[in-house]
Amino acid sequence: MTPEPTPREPLSVVVITLNNADTLDACLRQVDWADEIVVLDSGSTDDTVAIAQRHGARVAVHPFDEFGPQKQRAIALANHDWILNLDADEVLSPASRAVIERALVAPRHAGFRLPRRERMFWTVQHPLSWRNAHLRLYDRRRGRMNDVEIHSAMELDGPVKTLWRADFVNDSDPDIAGRVSRINRYSSALVAHKLRRRQRLAGLRMVVYPPFFFLRQYLAKRYFLNGSAGFIASVVGAFYVFLKYAKLHEAQRRQRKAEKSRMDG
């Protein structure tokens, strides 16, 4: 008699939203096989909530403060311990379902990283260029979201494995202007965090790191495979690095000037 296959762990997909009507439908369409979809909205004024409900999601609303706490609230709303945490502009590839379901059969890891393919304006990142892997599938009992601004992430107590065949596409930047606007916001938001950490040598990093970043992205990570879009993405990425340290350098100069004024006064 053939033994019955071991069932996989039940899975909750968790997404936080704010006016994501342009991307949410594609995101949720690729995870409709999950046992549950939870959407925590921050007060959308477009069709975001209606789209989530159309996909059978359980929707809650809470005002947004920071990414880490908001994602932790969404995770706490889930009925299952295994969480697939996606942003509203991320789309799981069709082949990823089978890989994820196999990983959830008697899992021996606390979580799994999924490789992310970036949208590069008018194209999607070539599969042979380097894909950064992000921890998106995990047992919530083994960790908690950290409080890092902008790039908050789950921190787990236990082993983590990368599922290289289960990737997703980040669809957030359809054009160059959108990406430049985003990196301007992100770089400004990171300044306060870096000031608190008293990060040193911002002026030197501002000069040295951007060209290194460009060469690493374009050559070492094979962004050249993406044609002109890969070149532009590498340049914009280097500019993001420059902005972070230039704004930090500026903020540190202001801080030193204020401290000197207090001492002189």
**Topology-level CATH name of the largest domain:** Spore Coat Polysaccharide Biosynthesis Protein SpsA, Chain A
Structural class: alpha/beta
**N→C terminal distance:** 88 Å
- Second CATH tier, the architecture of the largest domain: Alpha-Beta Complex
Strand fraction band? 15-25%
**CATH superfamily caption of the largest domain:** Spore Coat Polysaccharide Biosynthesis Protein SpsA, Chain A
Q: For the report, how would you describe the main beta sheet?
A: 10 strands, mixed
Helix content: 40-55%
Q: Care to count the β-strands?
A: 12
- The shape is globular
Q: Nearest-angstrom radius of gyration?
A: 21 Å
CATH level 1 name of the largest domain: Alpha Beta
How would you state the average pLDDT, rounded?
92
Structurally, how many domains make up the residues?
A: 2
Order of helices and strands: EHEHEHEEHEEEEEEEHHH
Structural notes for this entry:
The protein is of the alpha/beta class and 265 residues long. The protein folds into 2 domains: 11-170, Alpha-Beta Complex (Spore Coat Polysaccharide Biosynthesis Protein SpsA, Chain A), CATH 3.90.550; 176-257, no CATH class. The chain is 42% helix and 22% strand. The protein is built from 7 helices and 12 strands. It has helices at residues 24-29, 48-54, 67-77, 96-103, 176-196, 202-220, 227-264, and strands at 11-17, 36-41, 58-61, 82-87, 90-92, 111-120, 123-124, 132-139, 143-145, 154-156, 160-162, 168-170. The longest helix is centred in the last third of the chain and has 38 residues, at 227-264. The protein is globular and about 75 Å long.
